[in-house]
Amino acid sequence: MTKPFHMLLACAIGFLCLSCEEKEEKRVSPLGITESKDTEGTGYDLPEIQESGELIAATLSGPDTYYEYKGRGCGLQFEMAENFANAIGTRLRMETVRDTAELLRRLEAGEIDLAALEIPVGRAHGEELRPAGAWSASNDTARTKKEQWMVRTDAPLLAEALDNWYKPEMRKTLMNRDRLRFVPGGGVKRRVRAPIQNRAKGIISSYDSYFIRHSRGIGWDWRLMAAQCYQESGFDPQAVSWAGARGLMQIMPETAAHLDLPAHEVHQPEKNIGAAARYLRELEQKFRDVPGRLERIRFVLAAYNGGSGHVRDAMALARKHGKNPHSWKEVSPFILGLAHPQYYNDPVVQYGYLRGEETYGYVESIMRRWERYRTVGHASLSGAAPAPSRRNSRGGFKSKVLSAEELEAKSKEEIE
Fold first, then answer.
1. What are the boundaries of each domain within the chain?
2. Average pLDDT of the segment spanning 124-149
3. What is the C-alpha to C-alpha distance for residues 89 and 86, in angstroms, rounded to an integer?
4. Cα separation of 181 and 240, whole Å?
5. What is the pLDDT of residue 169?
6. Backbone dihedral angles phi then psi of residue 238, each to the nearest 5 degrees
């Protein structure tokens, strides 16, 4: 073989290798990011996250960061992280930590992918972490930079994706939406019926026969279930909340699946009421350590609204402060307290922030309405639950609906 031929062959092979390298070097990832060998990190980066199908983020518990409401994640940092996870085609797994130090430690250790907390710019983070997303230097240039999310420095593609995704107006939109959820009429789409259909004939609602039938199975007064139903949906079987709760008793999708209630049956009155009765029975079992049926009912109602984990947290706080954890009167101030950092950040609390005023008011309203409903309908149709006397029916509640300021003052006074 001649020397010129060898030279031509070597040149051809070199050209082919160069072409292949050029093709391999450039790839376009989601959000318009161009990946290359020069930009790839050595750690767990965007491609690995997308391959796993899960973005793991962590933040603090609180009303503006992350909390659970009727089993659904809420809070601005959660909403933004979920939005980003959707943008890169993954699901979000949100975890909570006690403080910023723990958050950054877990990020440095690679236990999480993203610190979803707006951390002040200029704080020392070490060489292993870098800012990204909200308020980072690569976006929102028209405004003063104050805060940022954090990722590891060996995840440059994840950081770039966050920077390309974040828009200041998104944050404002999510904040406004979150506020509207909890204003009167903003949380549940429903057509409220009259609280009593026909007092003279003893008819509370069109669904009394269902309340009577299913309350017997759990030993409740059917009028108690009716009072709870009015609180949940105003007797509208088509009611839907922003969190996804549906029907007369506002059953969440996850709860419906757990109770074997198919999605196409969730708005059927009897099916919905029957599922709610099964759920109430489960909650009663969870609080069987609370002596006295009337007392236990208050804990069950609180758990139906706020979640059994949060109620147990309030009971743990009551015990810690020398109160009776099985007395609603002594636990309810701690239900309110879970809306404040000094309580939801307490080491004995496992489930973090709770909209305590809502859960407190939920129990109060139902117990009061039940007392009024006891003057309607036939007592012989009632279930086994004892009726509250006028002396103890409120379980320590005041007769008026308290303002947020009064509730806070009351919670602090009774806890101290």
1. 32-181, 205-415
2. 64
3. 5
4. 12
5. 81
6. -100, 5
Residues recorded for the chain? 416
The arithmetic mean of pLDDT across residues 346-362, rounded, is: 95
Q: Is residue 160 within 8 Å of 38, Cβ to Cβ?
A: no
For residue 120, the SS3 value is strand
Sequence-distant (≥ 6) Cβ neighbours of residue 386 within 8 angstroms = 293, 294
Q: Which residue has the higher pLDDT, 331 or 7?
A: 331
| Burial (CB count <10 Å: 0-12, 13-18, 19+), residue 268 | middle
Strands 72-74 and 240-241 turn out to be unpaired
Q: Which amino acid is at 47?
A: P
C-beta separation of 113 from 161 below 8 A? no
Instruction: For residue 163, report the phi and psi dihedrals to the nearest 5 degrees.
Output: -65, -40
pTM (predicted TM-score): 0.74
Across 244-265, b (16+ Cβ under 10 Å) vs e yields: ebbbbbbbbbebbeebebeeee
Residue 29 has φ and ψ, to the nearest 5°, of -100, 175
Measured distance CA(244)–CA(407) in Å, rounded: 28
Q: What pLDDT, in 10s, does the model give residues 206-261?
A: 999 999 999 999 999 999 999 999 999 999 999 998 888 999 999 999 999 999 99
* CATH class entry, domain 205-415: mainly alpha
- Does 6 or 263 have the greater pLDDT score? 263
Q: How far is CA 21 from CA 15, 16, 34, 152, 366, in A?
A: 10, 9, 15, 28, 70
Q: What is the 3-state secondary structure (H, E, C) of 35-76?
A: ECCCCCCCCCCHHHHHHHCEEEEEEECECCCEEEECCEEECH
Fold of 32-181: D-Maltodextrin-Binding Protein; domain 2 (3.40.190)
Tell how far CA 269 is from the center of its chain: 26
Dist. CA 355–CA 376, nearest whole Å: 32
* Residue that is written with structure tokens 């007092």 in the block: 199
The type of residue at 211 is F
